[in-house]
Amino acid sequence: MSLMSFFNRRTSAPVARERLQILLAHERGIVGGQPDLVAKLREEILAVVRRHVMVEHDNVQVKMNRDADISTLEIEVEIPAPVPVGAR
Amino acid sequence: MAKVLVVTSGKGGVGKTTSSAALGAALAHGGDKVVVIDFDVGLRNLDLVMGAERRVVFDLINVVQGDAKLSQALIRDKRLENLSLLPASQTRDKDALTEEGVAKVLNELREKFDWIVCDSPAGIERGATMAMRHADVAVVVTNPEVSSVRDSDRIIGLLDSKTEKAEKGDRIEKHLLLTRYDPARAERGEMLKVDDVLEILSIPLIGIIPESEEVLRASNMGSPVTLNNPSSAPGRAYFDAARRLKGETVEITIPSDKKGLFGKLFGRRAA
């Protein structure tokens, strides 16, 4: 056990408190105004992308990170390469 | 060959989620590919106990209903790359779990993982029956306390009648995991002993997890106790249980966090 972890051993409750505050703020909808905002954003963003390019359901990766001050929604859409003119 | 393991108990608060996370991480630590699934739709907590609560995007019900692919809903653990979590939905109700839907998800998972650990909700309602339905192995989590033992007995009855294996005439493998055990109190006659519980429930013992401060500390930190403090008494007890699940013969012991002089002088303040 390192020296740091020795001194940190008693500090688990503040970690628990902070994790709960962030989580519950999102679940109660305090952050972002509505509890399922991210789910809605995700669906609508994907719908807009699909309006313009054919996207395979499998080629979409959605990552989320909720923090106290800022949350990030990362949507990675793999867009198929255009078919070269000569290959048609 | 993938194994579907249900962690169940009937009674709430006995340590199902703690045990699912700890056993899942211990199995993954040994190199197996492991996924832990939260079946507690509406009251999910496995994500929080495993420290992945900020990263949940899709959940089991999204996958069952076809709104998301399995690969999109699986959350890979940041500490162990061969450990994944499939969270429960927080907003929908348990009726969204259909038997066919769950079977389809489990079949897909069987191809990718060695162990599929199903964390059952308390009770005997839909979430609990769905969690055990397709299991090959069951870990019945029991506290040495009358109401917990009674509820475990009821759950053992359901495992022998309502699971797919039971309906086909096979026997589901059942193991007892005794949690929050205090050997000193049992010795003083203040708590049911291991042998008392074994005699009443008559299923084989997979491990004894001693009552320990480390369990709360790990859940505060959002880390399975087997990762947060592998050398702690509950950490070692869960590692031993995981090895027994894999078929190894490991002598049953009750690990303890016995403190040396230094620990006795300074350790008490933590309590």
TrEMBL record, chain A:
GO biological process entries = cell division; regulation of division septum assembly
Q: Organism's domain of life?
A: Bacteria
The record's section on NCBIfam families has:
minE (TIGR01215), PRK00296.1 (NF001422)
Among Gene3D superfamilies, the record links this protein to: Cell division topological specificity factor MinE
Q: Which InterPro entries match?
A: MinE, MinE_sf
Belongs to which family?
Belongs to the MinE family.
Instruction: Please state what the protein is called.
Output: Cell division topological specificity factor
Coiled-coil regions listed in the entry: none
Alphabetic keyword roster = Cell cycle, Cell division
Q: What does it do?
A: Prevents the cell division inhibition by proteins MinC and MinD at internal division sites while permitting inhibition at polar sites. This ensures cell division at the proper site by restricting the formation of a division septum at the midpoint of the long axis of the cell.
From TrEMBL, chain B:
Does Ribosomal protein show up as a keyword for this record? no
What is this protein called in UniProt? Septum site-determining protein MinD
UniProt binding sites for ATP: 11-18
Q: What does this protein do?
A: ATPase required for the correct placement of the division site. Cell division inhibitors MinC and MinD act in concert to form an inhibitor capable of blocking formation of the polar Z ring septums. Rapidly oscillates between the poles of the cell to destabilize FtsZ filaments that have formed before they mature into polar Z rings.
Task: Supply one GO molecular-function term.
Answer: ATP binding
- Give the similarity note: Belongs to the ParA family. MinD subfamily.
Q: Which SUPFAM superfamilies did the record assign?
A: P-loop containing nucleoside triphosphate hydrolases
Instruction: Give the record's GO CC terms.
Output: cytoplasmic side of plasma membrane; cytosol
List each copy of the CobQ/CobB/MinD/ParA nucleotide binding domain by range. 5-225
Swiss-Prot/TrEMBL keywords: ATP-binding, Cell cycle, Cell division, Nucleotide-binding, Septation
The biological processes this protein is annotated with in GO are:
division septum assembly; negative regulation of cell division
